[in-house]
C-alpha cells in the first residue's frame, strides 16, 4: 500500500492496529488515480464471451442440420402443383405462341455465361456474408450489437423453419425434372448453379446441394431473408460500406434464386416478408418485453 496514503491516514489518528491491517492488505492502489489497475481478461474468458455472442448462430447451424434427421415431408403433404400454378397466375410470362412460362422457366431458356458466373458469386454469399458481418461487429468492439444481430438472425430462421414444416413445397428445379409427383427421398440438386461449377471447373454447388435431404423446403426462401437482416443492422451501426454491399448482394441473391431454379418469385417475396416479420417481432416486441430485455441486458453486459 502507498506510504503516502498511510501517512494521510495517520493524520486522521486512526488506531495503529487498523493501519497495520491496511498495510498488510497491500491493496494495489494507484496513489495518483486511486483506481485498480486494468487486468486483461484471460483467454478462456474471451473465448466464452465470443461463444456467447455467437451462440444464436451456432444454434441456427445445429437446427439447420438437425432438420435432415426429421424431414418436413414427414409432417405434411408436399405442394408440387399449387405453388407452380400460383406462380404462373401471378408472374407468368406469355410467349408468342400463347403458352405461359414461369419466370424460372423463361430464365432457364435465356441463360448466359456471364449471368451464370454472377449467379454463383451471389449465391455463395447467402450465409457466409451475414456470418462475416457478425464477426466484423464483434471484432470491432461492438459485441452487444453483434449478439443482438445474431439473435434477430435466429428469430428469422425459427419463423422460416416453422413455415417449412407447415407447408412442405417443391422448388422449381424439382418440378422441371420430376413433374408434379412427390418422390420421397429425392436428393438435392444444384440445378442452374451447376452451370457455375462448369464455368470454374470446381464442383462448388454440386458438393453443397448434392447431399441435401431438405429438398421440399422452398417456402419461404431463407436465401432471400439473410442478407436483408444483416443489411438492417449494418444501417443501424452506420456501416455505409457494409450496407451498400449487403443491399447489392441481397438483390443479387433474389435474382439468382429465380434464375437458378431454386425458388419461385413467390418464395423470394415470402422470404423477404419473413425477414421483415422476424425483425419486427424481435426489435418491436421482444426487445420491448421486460423479461426478454432484462435477460438480453444481462448477457450483453457480460460480453463487455
Described by strand count, sense and barrel closure, the largest sheet is: 2 strands, antiparallel
On the 0 to 100 scale, the average pLDDT is 89
Assembly annotation? single chain
Strand content: under 5%
Number of E strands: 2
Strand order of the largest sheet: 1-2
Alpha carbon gap, first and last residue = 30 Å
User: How many helices in DSSP terms?
Assistant: 15
Anisotropy-based shape? globular
**Secondary-structure element pattern, one letter each:** HHHHEEHHHHHHHHHHH
Q: How many structural domains in the coordinates?
A: 2
Helix content: 55-70%
Radius of gyration: 28 Å
Q: Give me the secondary-structure category.
A: mainly alpha
Low-confidence stretches: 24-34
Question: Could you explain how this protein is built, in words?
Answer:
There is one protein chain. The protein is mostly helical. The chain folds into two domains: 39 residues, no CATH class; 263 residues, no CATH class. 64% of the residues lie in helices and 1% in strands. It is built from 15 helices and two strands. It has a two-stranded antiparallel ribbon with strand order 1-2. Helix 3 crosses helix 15 and helix 7 runs antiparallel to helix 8. The longest helix is centred in the first third of the chain and has 24 residues. About 4% of the residues have low confidence.
Fill in the keyword field for this structure.
304 residues, 15 helices, two-stranded antiparallel ribbon
Fold topology:
Blueprint: H1 3-10, H2 16-25, H3 43-66, H4 82-91, E1 93-94, E2 100-101, H5 103-108, H6 113-123, H7 128-139, H8 143-166, H9 172-178, H10 194-200, H11 204-210, H12 223-236, H13 240-259, H14 265-285, H15 290-303
Antiparallel strand pairs: 1-2
Helix pairs in contact: 3-7, 3-8, 3-15, 6-10, 6-13, 7-8, 7-12, 8-12, 8-14, 8-15, 12-13, 12-14
Amino acid at each position: 500500500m502507498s506510504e503516502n496514503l498511510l501517512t494521510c491516514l495517520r493524520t486522521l489518528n486512526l488506531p495503529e492496529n487498523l493501519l497495520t491491517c491496511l498495510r498488510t492488505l497491500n491493496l494495489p492502489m494507484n496513489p495518483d488515480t486511486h483506481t485498480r489497475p486494468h487486468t486483461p481478461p484471460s483467454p478462456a474468458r474471451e473465448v466464452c464471451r465470443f461463444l456467447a455472442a455467437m451462440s444464436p448462430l451456432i444454434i441456427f447451424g445445429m437446427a439447420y442440420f438437425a432438420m435432415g434427421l426429421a424431414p418436413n415431408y414427414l409432417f405434411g403433404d408436399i405442394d408440387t402443383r399449387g405453388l407452380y400454378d400460383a406462380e404462373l397466375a401471378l408472374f407468368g410470362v406469355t410467349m408468342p405462341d400463347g403458352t405461359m412460362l414461369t419466370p424460372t422457366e423463361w430464365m432457364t431458356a435465356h441463360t448466359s455465361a456471364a449471368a451464370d458466373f454472377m449467379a454463383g458469386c451471389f449465391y455463395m454469399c447467402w450465409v457466409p456474408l451475414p456470418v462475416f458481418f457478425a464477426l466484423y461487429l464483434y471484432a470491432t468492439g461492438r459485441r452487444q450489437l453483434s449478439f443482438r444481430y445474431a439473435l434477430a438472425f435466429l428469430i428469422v430462421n425459427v419463423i422460416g423453419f416453422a413455415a417449412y414444416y407447415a407447408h412442405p413445397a417443391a422448388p422449381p428445379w424439382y418440378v422441371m425434372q420430376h413433374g408434379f409427383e412427390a418422390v420421397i427421398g429425392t436428393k438435392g440438386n444444384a440445378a442452374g448453379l451447376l452451370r457455375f461449377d462448369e464455368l470454374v471447373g470446381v464442383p462448388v454447388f454440386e458438393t453443397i446441394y448434392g447431399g441435401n435431404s431438405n429438398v421440399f423446403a422452398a417456402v419461404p426462401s431463407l436465401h432471400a431473408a439473410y442478407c436483408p437482416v444483416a443489411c438492417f443492422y449494418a444501417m443501424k451501426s452506420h456501416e455505409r460500406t457494409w450496407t451498400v454491399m449487403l443491399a447489392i448482394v441481397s438483390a443479387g441473391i433474389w435474382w439468382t434464386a429465380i434464375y437458378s431454379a431454386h425458388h419461385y418469385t413467390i418464395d423470394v417475396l415470402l422470404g423477404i416478408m419473413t425477414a421483415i416479420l422476424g425483425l419486427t417481432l424481435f426489435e418491436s416486441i421482444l426487445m420491448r418485453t421486460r423479461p426478454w430485455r432484462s435477460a438480453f441486458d444481462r448477457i450483453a453486459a457480460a460480453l463487455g
